[in-house]
Structures are given as C-alpha cells and as structure tokens.
Amino acid sequence: MDQQCLNAMVVARGLLDRGSSTLDGTSPGAIAAVIVYDVAVETAAKATLRVRPSPSAFPGTGYVIPSAKRAAQHKEHLPWVLDQLLASYRELRADNQVELPALRDARALHDYRNTVHHHGTVPSPQDLERQRFRATDFITALVSSFFGRQLSEVSRAMLVQDKEVREAIEAAEQSLASGQLASAVEQLSIAFEVARAAFRLGQPFDSRKSLSVHDVRRALGEVSSRFQLRKGLASGRLDSLERLLEALVRRSERAEDRLEALSLGAQASDYVWFQGRFPRAYRTLGSVQWEPPPRSNQPESRFNREEVIRGLDFVTTVALHWQQFPPAPNDELEPD
Questions:
Q1: Which of 100, 132, 154, 266 is 20–30 Å from 325 (CA)?
Q2: pLDDT tens digit string along 13-30?
Q3: 191: nearest Cα among 173, 164, 217
Q4: Phi-psi group of 117: left, alpha or beta (phi > 0 → left; psi -120 to 50 → alpha; rest → beta)
Q5: Rounded distance between C-alpha atoms, residue 140 and residue 297, angstroms
C-alpha cells in the first residue's frame, strides 16, 4: 500500500466514523450518514484502483455495465468503478469467476444512497445500521483482499514518521478498542511527550538540556544522600534550593508550552484542554524512557470514551503537524 493509497484508506475509515457522528435523531442527520457511508466506499474503491488498475479485458461475467457501454462511462461513476474493481480482483486472483467479497453490499448501499439523496427518503434506524455494515464490510474486504491488512490497522498513526511516537499511538488505539481507557490515556501521555521532545530537538529553541521537576528532586536527593545533608540548617537550605529550582523549571516549561501552543495554530485550544485533562508522562534524570504517572492518580472512571477519542485525535494531529516543521540549521543547535 503506497502513501497515497494509505492516505485515502485512512480518510475512508474516518468517513465511516464521521457518518455515525452525524446521527443526532433528525432526518437530515440520517440522510447525511448514508451519503457519507457511500462516499467512504467510493474513496476506498478509487484508492484501490489507483494501486491495482483493472485489466483491459474484463474476465468473466457479472458486471453491471454492459461491455458495449464501458467506453462511454465517466471514470467517477461508482458502478463503473466497482466493475473495474471486480476485474482487477479477478486478475489478482487469476480466477475469471471469483467474486469480490462485499461487492454486492457496496452496490446495494449506492442504490440506497441514490434513493435517499434524490428522493428524500428518510432512513429508518434499521436501514442506517444496514448501510453502515455494508460500507464497513466492503472497505474491510478491500483492505484485506488487495493489501493483506485488517481495517483496524489502518489509521492516521501509520502516517507518523517517528517510530516511538507511532508505536505509542498505536498502543493507545489498541487499548481504546479493547475498552482499557486508563491504558490508552497512559500511552497517549507518553506519545505526546515523545512527539514534543522530538519536535523540540529540531527547533531553534534547543531544549535538549531542559530539566523537569522530577530531575530536580532526584538530583538534590543524590546530593543530600552523598553529603548526608539530612538534618539541621543544611537540610533547610537544601529544601529552599529545591523549591527555587522547581519554580524555575516550571517557569521554563510554561514558556516552552506557550511556544508549542503557538506552533499548533487552530489547535491551541485543544492543546490547553489536553494539558489540563490528561496526566503528564515523565522521565527521570539520565533516562531516555518515558513513564506514565502512577495508575492510582488516574482512575478508570476519570475518563470516558469520547474524551479518550478526542485525546487520540489531538495527539495524532500534533505528531503529524510537528513532523512537517523543517529542522533548524545545525549551527543553531550547537551548544554554546
């Protein structure tokens, strides 16, 4: 699956979700859902044809468009696109009579969409479920039959270039799918911090040497242990130093957060929401491994599924947005 096809399949999968999100109990919402499901099918079908074009000679029978009318067909006409897909699939399988799974469902959905769109038919709840299943089954069959993948594997996370960020987002998706919300939250917190660290490394404001509050506490703890500064005046002065350093670190973090929020443009409000709602992952001094906060600090009931989905969308968007930034010139990243 090349990049262009992957992008289209991600869009098609997103359209399935968007179609369901239009269902608000109103007739326009129901009609819109059917239309969006049909668009999802069309997007996935055309993307597949770009990768696996149909042969010039259509093997076998069972096509909707008569052979005499094929030359006059517009390339955007979905029944014609589906006929080409069937021919491509038969060529791929080297079987002139094999049927493409769920192709009949795609045709039935398109016919129903025409009734809804052109005649104003209002779908019943049962019809809506049927069209959603038809669209989902068809796109699932395409991804499996032509590319050997599962539809659940196709997501925007696949477009993230950084391996560590991508794996954390994919782990969050898997946890969300299995209903493990706390685990999904942890993985999103880690994915965000890894993506942010990667972004900062490539920007003129070099934060490779940035400390966290955890770093300050650990470093001062080591100093206290080594020099046995545990009692009396020395201990009080060390506590004061710790509070001062923590305040400076937090001020630095706020400044960097504002720079990052500005880099997100329209997503700045979501940035503030995510920072205030999701726990913050951390890593200790000298460690390259990010850790989630203790599970006891984020009980399962604190988050609902809709919030986790919003967090997943935000983190993925941020990672994709930040990777588009050109790296700063090397001389700007050299230590003073």
A1: 154
A2: 888 878 877 777 888 888
A3: 164
A4: alpha
A5: 38
Which structure tokens are listed for 154?
Answer: 């196709």
Place of tokens 């659940």: 152
CA distance 238 to 302: 36
Q: Which residue has the tokens 């196709």?
A: 154
181-218 pLDDT, tens digit each: 889 999 999 999 888 888 777 654 444 445 555 666 66
Q: DSSP states of 262-321 as a string?
A: HHTGGGHHHHHHHHHHSPPPB--TT----BPPPGGGS-GGG--HHHHHHHHHHHHHHHHH
**Placement of tokens 């809804």 in the chain:** 116
Closest CA to 167 of 180, 155, 177: 155
Query: Closest Cα to residue 292, out of 192, 201, 213, 160?
Result: 192
